[in-house]
Amino acid sequence: MIFFRQSLAIALLISLPSGVFAAAEQRLQIGFATISPVIAPLWVAADRGFFAQEGLNPELVFIGSAPTLVASLIARELPFASTAGTAVMSGVAGGAPLKILATINNRSTYDLVARPGITRPEDLRGKRVGVQSIGGGVWMQALLALEHVGLEPVRDRLQMQVIGPLPQLANALEAGAIDVTVLPSVFSQPLKVRGYPVLLETRNTNILFMNTSLFALKETVEQSPQLVERVLKGLLRALAFIHLPVNREAVSQTLARRLRVDQRGAEEAYRGALEMLDRKPYPSDEGLHKVRRLLARSNPRVATIQVEDVIDTRILRKLDDSGFIEALYTNTNAR
Questions:
Q1: Residue 1 pLDDT > 50, yes or no?
Q2: Which range has the worst mean pLDDT, 21-35, 62-76, 172-186?
Q3: Which of 151, 168, 240, 310 is 20–30 Å from 249 (CA)?
Q4: Residue 78 in 3-state DSSP?
Q5: What is this structure's pTM?
Q6: CA-based torsion, 90, 28, 56, 222: positive or negative
Q7: CA-to-CA distance for 63 and 120, rounded, in angstroms?
Q8: Which value, to the nearest 10 degrees, does the dihedral of the CA atoms of residues 267, 270, 271, 275 take?
C-alpha cells in the first residue's frame, strides 16, 4: 500500500529485510500526514541542508491520513514517520512495536472555527465537524477543543466528517460542506477576518497533547541507532534554525512554498510555528495520557498501554546531555 512512485533506490530500500537500512542510509523516506506550520522542522531540515549535514538525502512523503501513514511504517514502506501520538497509540494497541523518538509540539494549537451564523459552542449541537481522518491528529485536536468548550460527540450528536488535509478543511468550511473544524492560524486568521467565528484558540488554553512526533519501529531504533541519531540531529538543527530570529525570512520562504500561501500567510505561519515548536522536543507523558484517555472510549485496548513503553528518548537524551542542542542556540554561526 503505497500512494507514490518510487525510484529504484527507494524500492531497494524498502525491500530490505526488517530493520536493515545501513546499506542505503543516505537515501530514505520520512512520511508526514499534515500540511501545517508544525511540519516546518522537516521542511527546513530538507530545504536548508540539515539532513545533508548528517549524510542523509531523505524524500519527504506526504500521506494525508495518519492511520495510513502508520500502516505504511508498520509495513516497512517507510523507516520514519511524523504525525501525532494519536495514530501511534492506535497502532500500538493493534500490536505494532512503535516508538516515539521526539515530539516537536506537545500542545493543542489549532483554532476551533465555525461557519458564519454559529456564535456559541452550544450552536454546534447536531452539526457537522470536519476532520482530516478518523484517528489522526486533527481529529484528536477537534475532540480536545470540543471537550474544552463543553461538547461531547455522542451526547451532542456531532457528525464527524472526513474531508482531507487542512487546506481542504478550510475550503470545505467556506463551501458550507461542514459547520466547524480546527485549523492552524495560517488558515483560520484569513477566515476570521471574513467573518468566520473562532470559538476557541487552543494555543491560549495550554491543553497538553502529544502532537507532531517522530516515530519508528522498535527494531529500527535497536538495529540502526546511528541512523536514528542522524535523523534527530537534522531535525534539531532545523528547530534551532527556525527559532533564531535572524532566519525569519528564510523560514518564511520555505513555509510560503510548502503551504502555498502568500507572504502575509507565510508570516502568520512563521508566528504559528514559533508558538507551536518546542526547542527541546521531549514527548509529554501527560499529553500521551490524554490521548490514551480519549482513544480508549472507542478502543478499550488503548487503555492497557503503558505510556512509558511507547516513548524512547534515549538518543535524544544522549544528544541533549552532550550539549549538542544547547550549542545550536548559542552558536549562531551554526546555520
A1: no
A2: 21-35
A3: 168
A4: coil
A5: 0.84
A6: positive
A7: 34
A8: 170
- Closest CA relative to residue 231, chosen from 244, 220, 247: 220
Structural contact between residues 131 and 160, judged by C-beta atoms closer than 8 angstroms:
yes
- Residue burial 200-225, b: 16+ Cβ < 10 Å; e: rest: bbbbeeebbbbbbbbbbbeebbebbe
C-alpha grid cell for residue 63? 500521506
Residue the block writes with cell 533564531: 244
Distance (Å, whole) CA 278 – CA 275: 8
- The 10 Å CB-count burial string (b at 16+, else e) for 20-54 is ebeeebeebbbbbbbbbbbbbbbbbbbbbebbeeb
Sign of CA dihedral 83, 86, 88, 91: negative
What is the C-alpha radius of gyration for the chain, rounded to an integer number of angstroms? 19
CA atoms within 13 A on the CB side of 282: 12
Report whether pLDDT(257) > 50.
yes
Q: Which residues contact 290 (CB under 8 A, 6 or more apart)?
A: 144, 207, 208, 209, 210
Res. 331 pLDDT band, cuts 50 70 90: confident
Mapping DSSP to helix (H, G, I), strand (E, B) and coil, where does residue 201 land?
strand
Copy the grid coordinates of residue 36.
501545517
Q: Which pLDDT tens digit goes with each residue over 129-157?
A: 999 999 888 999 999 999 999 999 999 99
Which distant-in-sequence residues (6+ apart) come within 8 Å of 10 by Cβ? 27, 29, 59
What are the backbone dihedrals phi and psi of residue 75, each rounded to the nearest 5 degrees, phi first?
A: -80, 5
Please state, as a whole number, how many other Cβ atoms lie within 10 Å of the Cβ of residue 314: 12
Rounded Cα–Cα distance for residues 232 and 8 (Å): 26
Q: Is the pLDDT of residue 280 over 70?
A: yes
